[in-house]
Amino acid sequence: MALTKVGKEGISNISNSSDATAITINSSENILIGKTSADNTTVGVRIQPDGFASFARDGNFPLLLNRKSDNGTILDLRKDGTTVGTIGVTSGDQVFFTRATGSQGIKLKNSALMASNADGSDSDNDQDLGSSSVRWKDLYLSGGAFIGGTGSANKLDDYEEGTWTPTADGGSTTYSTQSGLYTKIGNIVYAKFNLEINNFAGSVRYLMGGLPFNSFSSGGGSGSILYFANIHTSAVALFTRTDSNGSTVFISGTTGSSGTIANINHNWANNSANIIGHIIYQTA
What we know:
The chain is mostly beta strands. 0% of the residues lie in helices and 44% in strands. The protein has strands spanning 2-7, 10-15, 23-25, 31-33, 44-47, 53-56, 72-79, 82-90, 94-99, 104-109, 112-116, 145-146, 155-156, 159-164, 174-185, 188-199, 207-208, 221-229, 237-242, 249-254, 274-282. The strands form five sheets. Strands 14-15-16-21-18-19-20-17 form an eight-stranded antiparallel β-sheet, with no helix packed on it.
C-alpha cells in the first residue's frame, strides 16, 4: 500500500508494504505512528506540532537511548535552550544524575548511591541529604551509620527503646509496681526502673534482676537510686552497679558512717519497699 504525504511542497507517496495503517495525521496535525487514536495509552507514537511526543509500548520499554564509544551525557535536559541537568554514564557503567548549576548530583556506583559532580566524578563531603527546613522523614537501615568519620569507632549500628521487668530475689515475691524502660545506643544501655514490693519472699535483699541486656564481659556499669522508701536497712544514699557479663543489679549503700561505698551491698528489699532509679552500663 502507499501512504500520502501532504506538505507545502506538494503531495508525495511513502512506500509501505504493510496492510495496516502506518502513519496518520489527524485534524489537529498530530502525527500518529502505529495507531489512529491521539491518546497516550494506545500502543504507538504520538507527535504533536507543539513539540510534545508520547511513546506507548506493550510489555517492554518505550524509549531507548544508546551512547556509543565513550562515556558522558546520554540525556541532556534544557530550559530555554540552557542545560539544567543531565543523565549519563561514567567509567565502570556508573550512572549519574546531575544539575548544571552548582555541579550537584548523585550517582549509582558499586551498588551505592553517592554524591557526584556535574561530570559524574566523585563528590566527597560537600552535599547534604535534606536540610533544616526540608527534611526526609524516616530512615530504614539494615546496617549501621558512620557519624563524624569512616572508622569502625564511628559506626552506630544499633538504637533501641523498650521495656524491661525488674525483679527482686525470690520467685514468690509479689509486687505493687514492677516497671522498667531502656534506651540502647550502640553498646551503651540506659535503664531506669520503678520497683515496689508487696511481699518479699527471697533471701538476698541487695539484688535486682531482669536487665534487658547482659553487661560487657570486661566491665559493668553504675547508677543511682533517686527515690527509696520502706527499705529493709536504713541508708543515707543508695547506688546501683552491675558486674561483668550479668543481668543483675547490685544495690550499694551507705549509712553515712562508712569511708567508702564501693561494693557495699545494701539490704533494701523488704515488704512495701520501693526504689526508683537508673543504671548505665556497656553491653557486648
